[in-house]
Structure formats: structure tokens, C-alpha cells
Amino acid sequence: MDYKLDHIGIAVRNLDESILFYENVLQGTLLDRYRSDLKGVESEIAIMEVSGNRIELLAPTNNTTSPIARFIKQKGKGVHHIAYDVKDLDEALKELESKGVRTLKDTLRINNHGRRLIYLNPVDTDGTIIEYCDYPEQN
């Protein structure tokens, strides 16, 4: 299985201020901005491109149920997750299972950009939140 870094997710408190930082300081470009009210997501997301790399800025929209709000409360703002493009998510899930690595099954979904994704259980990843994703319509 090939693993390619897809993006880094960063938990922020103020999305507008964070976008300005990435645009003005890092010369980034805002590619998209959208809100997801799905249970277990409850975030506003800004997709930035900086020197050919993708960054997802994640701001909670519900301070009681958003996992981003919970993350910020526990660990503060900053890097939330690292996402890897695995080309075939179904195959990657079989491989994880064969290696005894668990996923957070309730996080399996398709986002606004057609990306299928799931988060690995941080207990099995030495505490790092890792997302596996693929783009079925591009494969």
C-alpha cells in the first residue's frame, strides 16, 4: 500500500484570523470554506494551499458536541490530525485489521469534496490522530 501525505488538519478557535495568517504570512491560497453540521463533525473548515501542500483549518461550530471543541479544550489549538491518501480505502481497512489496528468506525464518511475518510484509533497510533482517505471518483 502506498501512503501519500494528503493534508494536515489544524484545530483553530477563529477561522477568519487563521485564514488571514495563512494568506498573509505563509502566502497561502484559500481553496474552499464550508460548514459541516454532521454529528461528530460540527465544524467549519477552510482548505488552504501553501506551496502545493494542503492544510485544513478546523473551527468548532458547537462547543459542546464538536470533536474539534473537545480537542481544543483538552490539548489546545494546533495540529489535530495528519491525513494519508491510501488510494483504496477498503483495501487499507483490510490491511489495518490484519495488523490489529482499530479505526473509529463512526468517523467513516464522504466529505464535501468526495473524499472518503476514516480516523484510526489514537490508542493504536501512539496518540496521533491519523486519517486515512481516498478519492474514489479520481481513481
From TrEMBL:
VOC domain location: 4-135
GO molecular function, one term: methylmalonyl-CoA epimerase activity
Listed InterPro entries: Glyas_Bleomycin-R_OHBP_Dase (IPR029068), MeMalonyl-CoA_epimerase (IPR017515), MMCE/EMCE_epimerase (IPR051785), VOC_core (IPR037523)
Pfam families found in the cross-reference section: Glyoxalase_4 (PF13669)
Keywords: Metal-binding
The UniProt record lists the keyword Repressor: no
GO process terms (BP): L-methylmalonyl-CoA metabolic process
Sequence similarity: Belongs to the methylmalonyl-CoA epimerase family.
Protein name: Methylmalonyl-CoA epimerase
Organism listed in the record: Cytobacillus firmus (Bacillus firmus)
Lineage of the species this protein comes from: Bacteria, Bacillati, Bacillota, Bacilli, Bacillales
